[in-house]
Design goal:
22% strand, globular, 48% helix
């Protein structure tokens, strides 16, 4: 096992995410979700390692609203993951819920349930209580599935980054399996070449 400091992982995260296809403008906010999830519930970096090829699939899926009525909204993520699109989907859920008071949202063809706790906590921070229904059940292989969200406007909860488990990780670091650590360092180094005497003399 390797212990990594939370700030160090947060420094690596945007570049790692860019190497699995997350756009530059989205990588920073997605990095917060990746690091929080690894610190609080675990499994985020293993997800990145396992689904690296799938995340890099081109052309990339484009989620869209396929049904919208007073009863429910249906969002089709079209095979994308909650790592890529979870923040956008939950921002949409929050906007719909704040406007209506409560909302039932079905999300189709999505995978990456490991990121749900962060997304639910982030929505609560914004004053939207979200419960994921039984439709969330995903196959062990993490094939695309669906989830049902019941959302209700409420008072804002505490800040996501103030979670006691996260703060404990800030103090003590995060234990990561060696093979997972090696794979994320490889992703980081694909974009960032380590400094050497040769790179310094050839700079500029």
């Amino acid at each position: 096992m390797t212990n990594i400091a939370v700030p160090e992982l947060r420094r690596y995260a945007p570049d790692m995410l860019r190497m699995v296809g997350i756009p530059l403008g989205q990588a920073d906010e997605t990095a917060d979700m990746l690091v929080w999830t690894e610190a609080v519930t675990g499994g985020a970096l293993r997800f990145l390692q396992t689904h690296r090829a799938r995340l890099n699939w081109i052309p990339r899926p484009r989620p869209r609203v396929v049904t919208e009525s007073p009863e429910k909204v249906v969002v089709d993520v079209r095979g994308g993951s909650l790592l890529e699109f979870g923040i956008r989907v939950f921002d949409f859920v929050c906007a719909e819920t704040v406007a209506a008071g409560s909302r039932w949202v079905q999300v189709r063809n999505v995978y990456g349930e490991v990121f749900l706790p962060y997304l639910i906590a982030r929505a609560a921070e914004r004053g939207v209580h979200v419960e994921a229904g039984d439709g969330l059940a995903m196959a062990p292989s993490e094939e695309s599935a669906g989830l049902t969200l019941q959302a209700m406007a409420t008072d804002p909860a505490g800040a996501v980054l103030a979670d006691p488990v996260y703060l404990d990780a800030v103090d003590c670091g995060i234990e990561i399996a060696d093979d997972v650590f090696d794979s994320i360092i490889q992703l980081f180094e694909m974009l960032r070449v380590p400094t050497s005497e040769r790179s310094r003399t050839h700079a500029g």
